[in-house]
Design goal:
Keywords: NADP, Oxidoreductase. With 351 residues, this protein is α/β, with parallel strands linked by helices. It is 40% helix and 11% strand. The chain contains ten helices and seven strands.
């Protein structure tokens, strides 16, 4: 065996961690050797994949509406109880607008607002699904509160959050029923997985339009209403832990960047609107098991294994895990909290 062959063999049998000290003699030796051997990773071989923790073979497209699984409202803990808690957590008499409220996280957070005393406007591209779910939320409320004299008003409204005219028509429609808006939750958003170089530009723009423009357009429309009404209010933007870390193995650069933008938008608007008593905060969820995530896991079982292995609590979150977080941030209990990012991720981003 030649000296070079023996060096390659020894080097490759060492952990790749050696490569993480780029100035070390071992790194230099390895790099030189690798560069003489096409196909092995090295300084002049950026595409080999050995260093990459994302896998470009993972491609997941956001499903067409007809293939979307339906979410169901949460059953349990929505009735009257005798556990004492702070009155400042109540949303009694408030009107909460939830974008993306027909499904997934938006639906459960809307239900949390109803359980906490609010009336809710569900906004979604799929108005028919939002209408079905608004009836479902009210019937759950009635079955869990059979003696209540109050029935919450839960309405459904169409909007494409990325379209300014659609947003403005939607605000008019909400005000014609509810007369006022006090709070906003922006949950309309989606992710897709394509390797960055192959990402179809039209899909990238669409994703940015919904996740970033959609949050901005709804937030500014609600702030305009609050300022005209000379009323205080609060908003919660749904970001993602992907705005702080880079997920592996699925490639999703535009989504990650869009969620970093959502988080910083919350902070920026919090400063801009503090004078008007409008608080703006962000929630950054980790991996949550919605109906859609369940479908993706069933179709890509290796992803679930990988994801769970990286979560310190050893499991994915349930949409219900966001109920307390969103009610807290919307309510007066968070009166001095603005521009914050509440991470709900089972500890994923700590490590
Ligand atoms: N599920 C997770 O694990 C997870 C984790 C972190 C962050 N998030 C974020 O939470 C938010 C909700 O995600 P989800 O898992 O509930 O998704 P989901 O697909 O179940 O629900 C999203 C809803 O938004 C609606 N929507 C999509 N585009 C729209 C548009 N242009 N205008 C109006 N409505 C539109 C959809 O019709 C759907 O009802 C998203 O912003 C997502 O990025 C989700």
């Amino acid at each position: 065996m030649s000296l070079r062959q023996s060096l390659i063999r020894q080097s490759l049998s060492r952990p790749l961690l050696v490569l993480s000290t780029p100035r070390s003699p071992a790194f230099t030796t390895l790099s030189k050797l690798y560069n003489k051997h096409p196909g092995l990773p090295g300084e002049n071989d950026p595409g080999s994949g050995t260093h990459s923790r994302t896998d470009k073979n993972v491609k997941i497209q956001y499903p067409l509406e007809k293939n979307m699984p339906r979410s169901v409202p949460y059953q349990g803990h929505g009735g009257v109880h005798d556990k004492r808690t702070l009155a400042s957590f109540s949303l009694e008499g408030r009107t909460v607008v939830v974008t993306g409220g027909a499904r997934g996280l938006g639906l459960i957070m809307a239900q949390a607002a109803v359980i906490s005393g609010a009336n809710v406007a569900l906004v979604d591209l799929n108005e028919a699904e939002a209408a079905k779910q608004s009836s479902a939320i009210v019937s759950h409320f009635k079955s869990e509160n059979p003696d209540s004299s109050h029935t919450p008003t839960v309405t459904a409204h169409h909007a494409d959050v990325s379209n300014p005219d659609s947003v403005s028509a939607c605000i008019t429609s909400i005000l014609s029923t509810h007369q006022k808006i006090d709070h906003l939750i922006t949950s309309a958003g989606f992710t897709e997985n394509f390797d960055a170089i192959a990402y179809p530009p039209d899909r990238m723009r669409k994703l940015w339009g919904v996740n970033v423009d959609g949050t901005y357009l709804f937030a500014t429309a609600v702030a305009r209403h609050l300022i005209e009404r000379k009323s205080r209010g609060s908003m919660v933007f749904i970001g993602s832990m992907s705005g702080k870390i880079v997920n592996i193995p699925q490639p999703q650069a535009p989504y990650n960047a869009s969620k970093a933008a959502v988080r910083h938008l919350a902070a920026s608007l919090a400063v801009e609107w503090a004078h008007a008593g409008i608080r703006v905060n962000c929630i950054s969820p980790g991996y949550m098991m919605t109906a859609l995530t369940r479908k993706i896991m069933d179709e890509n079982p290796e992803l679930e294994k990988k994801w769970v292995s990286l979560i310190p609590t050893g499991k994915m979150g349930s949409p219900e895990d966001l109920m307390g977080a969103v009610v807290y941030l919307l309510s007066d209990a968070a009166g001095y909290t603005t521009g914050a990012d509440l991470v709900v991720d089972g500890g994923y981003t700590i490590t």
